[in-house]
Fold this protein.
Amino acid sequence: MDVKTGLFYLFAAVLLFAAFRVITARNPVYAALYLVLAFFQAAAIWLLLRAEFLAIVLVLVYVGAVMVLFLFVVMMLDINVDGLRQGFWKHFPLAAGVGALIALEMAGVLMGGFRLAAPRSAMVGGPDSSNTLELGKLLYTGYLYPLEIAAVILLVAIVAAIALTLRARKDSKYQNPSDQVRVKARDRVRIVQMPVTRAAQPVAEQPQASAETKA
């Protein structure tokens, strides 16, 4: 067994362990951190397969953006873990059925075998060609229209998210920037004349209290 095979088994073992801990960890923060570890191990396997672009995209997009956002959301929200686990056994048969179906589909694909063929980079640009360069050429030539359609869909999703966030609601409190700009100094500060503070008058002693003192 060479070094590359040993690294593959090491990364695969850590990946399986991290994926198992994602679904078994009781703390949501620990589950998110284990998912980050799983992403890193998957990126390392992509590097072993000479898919540098996919490895960098996996680290930058999922670990650097998506998982950091998930981690901040999980840490900022007060999630009641006990409440989430109340319906576990209720939904377990459905989840087990879906998992078994996915396992059967993956087994059907894997048992069919893999078709070994020459890599795309070797057929197009030779063995010394860059994987990222060939992927970029293929993406912006043969798949240009699907790429533009996906960009338009993402743009529409961004605009829709902004529109849903900035819509006027009855229970939301917001300020009008135009009114803030037109405000004047006399509207911000108002001087009120108050009477001069007087010294407190001494309180006369009660007769009952003086009698108790003499006794």
Observations:
- The chain has a mean pLDDT of 78.
- The chain has eleven helices and no strands.
- The two ends are 104 Å apart (CA to CA).
- The CA atoms of residues 7 and 139 lie 31 Å apart.
